[in-house]
Amino acid sequence: MLNMRQKKAITAEVGNRYRKANKKDKGKILDEFSATTGYSRVYAARILRYSPGKIVGYSKINGRKIKYIIGKGRKVKRARDKIYGYDVFLELKKIWTIFDFICSRRLKPFMAEAKEKLTKHKDLELSPETRQKLLLISVSTIDRLLKPEKDRYRLGKGRKGTKPGSLLKKSIPIRTFADWDEKKPGYLEADLVGHDGGCGSGDFAQSLNFVDVLTGWDESAACINKAQVHVFEAIKTAKARFPFAIAGIDSDNGSEFINSHMLAYCIKNKITFTRSRQYRKNDNCFVEQKNYSIVRRAVGYLRYDSGTEVGILNELYAYLGCYTNFFQPVVKLVFKTRDRSKVTKKYDEAKTPYRRVLECPDIDDKIKARLKSQYDSLNPAELKRKISKLQDKLLKLNTLKQKVGKDLSIAEKSYEYILT
Q1: What are phi and psi of 7, to 5 degrees?
Q2: What is the CA radius of gyration of the chain?
Q3: Interval 62-102: pLDDT, tens
Q4: 243 CB contacts (<8 Å, ≥6 apart)?
Q5: Is 130 helix (H, G, I), strand (E, B) or coil?
Q6: What is the value of pTM for the model shown?
Q7: Nearest Cα to Cα of residue 287 among 404, 113, 162, 203
Q8: Which helix H or strand E contains 381, and what residues bound it?
Q9: Does residue 161 form part of some domain?
Q10: Does residue 179 lie within any of the structural domains?
């Protein structure tokens, strides 16, 4: 019994003779060929009739058009040397880790600046060849090289803890996502992120998150609970960290924002105060996406309910603001089109909020000069190390609290003892 490889070899050899023969000889060749291969005469005549490379038919498989060719051998994959070897992977992984595992579409436009900054502070040493390859690397190659390193950890989800505000809502106008058309910086969205650890009872820390709609500049501050007085202090702390004046604040309908203190403060400082519709998170889409990408990714979903933890959170947010705004590129939606069920979105090139501030013509040159001076003094790798150290402190203190129960004083004393 002949195998398929042997049959193909015989077909190629007999086919040349068959196509050149006259009608009488073709009958004899066909009889001999059918007896040898076991093919029927109809099929045997068909495959002998066509020369190698001849297209004999088409078929559609999974929507793709496949053509069948007589005598065509299997494609031999061309052997090529790898352009981006293990040395490039190691340096790419180091850069990707320092800049908080950002996606390739954000990392690619930022690669030259990241490499220059890390080389300047001696956190990265590159050979000329590797340096050139990192500059030329594409988005798809970054994804392919980093694929084994991605998606290792998954975080849980928190709970919603917002309670409706007072009757002052009638005095505060509503702003939806479609209403954001400001071309000037200073119009912010605000939201609170609760650190209840999955248990909503009792008091627990809150992180106030502010994001500027135009530039994407983000600042956060922590408070011990959702009381108006503590939230108001956190608002003033976050406001002081912004490089430009605040022109407007948009919040949800929680009582921590919708209160007389907040309204009076905004009126006194000539700040436009607006709110979203109830139960419509898309109205605050700019800050809602930052709640996870910045706050949750930095401090997780554990329960923080002590003064020591709030102090660590605020120290962490001071470093996180510099790290995020100066060294985390973001993309902004340029336009969105809909054709029936198909939605097409177009984004601009990834830039850091710092770069967007420098490009904004409505910001004073003195502010830009101050930001440039601050940028020159910052080392992203050192910021990342400080943030990681504070994250470890939060984790250790939380572990101690679980061991000693609800007695926070014992946990804090034990924690201070460990640190010393």
Answers
A1: -65, -40
A2: 32
A3: 555 555 555 555 556 677 778 898 999 999 999 999 998 89
A4: 217, 357, 363, 367, 370, 371
A5: helix
A6: 0.73
A7: 162
A8: helix 380-404
A9: no
A10: yes
